[in-house]
Amino acid sequence: MPSEEELYQEHILDHYEDPFHRGHLTSATHAHEDKNPLCGDVVRIELELNDDGKIKNVYFDGQGCVISQASASMLIEEMYGKTVDELKSFSAEDMLALYGPRLTPNRQKCCLLSWKVLQSAVHSPVNETED
Amino acid sequence: MTDLATRSIDRTALLPVALRNDFPILSEEVGDHQPLAFLDNAASTQRPRQVIDALSGVYERTYANVHRGIHTLSELSTEQYETARHRVQRLINARQLHEVIFTSGTTASINTVARSWGDANLRAGDEVLLSVMEHHSNLVPWQQTAERTGAVLRHIPLTDDGRLDMEAFERLLTDRTKLVAVTAVSNTLGTINPVAEIIAKAHAAGALVLIDAAQSVPHLAVDVQALDVDFLAFSGHKMLGPSGVGVLYGKEALLDAMPPFLGGGSMINEVKLSSFTPAALPAKFEAGTPPIVPAIGMSAAIDYLQSVGLDAIHRHESELTRYAYDALSQIEGLRILGPAPEHRAGLVSFAFDRIHAHEFAQVLNDQFGVAVRAGHHCTQPLHAHLGIAASTRASFYLYNTLEEVDRLIEGVLAVQRMFAPQGRQRKRRKPDE
């Protein structure tokens, strides 16, 4: 059982209070939003993909617990500037490792919400999914 | 005792703490080696030694399938299973023994009515009256029935303090209303609904009433004949019994007229290759091997609850709830969901605008050993109505203590301090735009 010191490490609380690219991207080419049905946490990710398969820009927004929101910030920061292929090969295990502290299965769902949303977002062009 | 508890405590309303010794699990440690304070009783309860012994006693000495063989064990199991039905009959004061149907739980009980009674009786344009505070298990089955039958669902709105708007209820009740299906106690707001008044008014309008009693039968004395309720549903695991068993009570004439829901063994009188005739009540609604051991365990749980006394249990929970409510209501930024203590059963849900329910549940568990529920508690429409995504719920039962409520309050204050904005800055790895 992880203790609070491990679970809510300083860099995690930093991401929670001072997130990377929280907001919206008017130039988004791809976007997806999902929620964790267990607790109602919501994450939306908006991406601008280049023709050469690079993530030119990426933003997230959402509502939820420290783990779901801080992990989203950490993921977005990690993926910014990477290629779509690199994004697709970034596994759930990689996401849990990026987050750091060992999580119980229910809290893993919080941590993996943004990862799932991002994996779907690259397959969701804005003009097809929106409006 | 916490400084926030200003109201004097009526200690005569509390049950003896020694009663906790009957519950082995309460001496477990959780989180960072904290003694367990189990405040998640609205989700499921713990079992006393008497129930655990009853369960292992069946497996060790008397278990076989019921209503099948003529061998000794089948006779013994059948007798114990049918004794459990008697216990339930006495608990809710059903007129007939066969008005008590064992199901797998409240959800299965409500689905049985929605499928069997609903499909046979609802026509396009008929109305089923629910409420905004219902658990998903008393919403989704009716949405499915409405899809099949064309019936229309209406919802009783809530007052600002989280009670049913009874004036709106009367306006919504028309000659189109065929059924009113509402909860006796909200699992999220704690609101005790005026079910006797609802039943009387619904009957006067020619509608039947189903009461979701999952949160009331374990905590309050319920008399189905005095209420004149048509259908009542509840679960064993929320009243010190095992999971996997629940009850559907229905009036004999209604159950008799309803087609069977699940088909299979036990529920038949005679089967031919292309047809069957259904069994009489209660077997008609107990297809397949029933929850034999859970029902026997539930029977032991009823014996235990009645030995303590449901009125005494209710007084105990009311005192803990008032104490928790008074203390929580003085915490700045905390929003208590639902009505004042005099209108509520033994639970308090709350939300903070800044701090998510998960943080409360996590830190309360790890640092204070307090088990609470965080999330939407299977009431998403209610949370949407309240304008929040999630809440934290502390729910009490006969074994909880004032000291546990104190730990809850201490923990809530600690979480508030822990997650207060501190002007933190993320270490810059990449240029922000």
Automatic annotation (TrEMBL), chain A:
Gene3D superfamilies: 3.90.1010.10. GO terms for molecular function: iron ion binding; iron-sulfur cluster binding. Pfam families: NifU_N (PF01592). Residues 8-123 form the NIF system FeS cluster assembly NifU N-terminal domain. GO terms for biological process: iron-sulfur cluster assembly. Transmembrane segments: none annotated. It comes from the Bacteria. PANTHER family: IRON-SULFUR CLUSTER ASSEMBLY ENZYME NIFU HOMOLOG (PTHR10093). This is NifU-like protein. It comes from Lacipirellula limnantheis.
From TrEMBL, chain B:
Residues 38-408 form the Aminotransferase class V domain. It catalyses: (sulfur carrier)-H + L-cysteine = (sulfur carrier)-SH + L-alanine. GO terms for molecular function: cysteine desulfurase activity; pyridoxal phosphate binding. It comes from the Bacteria. Keywords: Pyridoxal phosphate, Transferase. Belongs to the class-V pyridoxal-phosphate-dependent aminotransferase family. Csd subfamily. This is Cysteine desulfurase. It comes from Lacipirellula limnantheis.
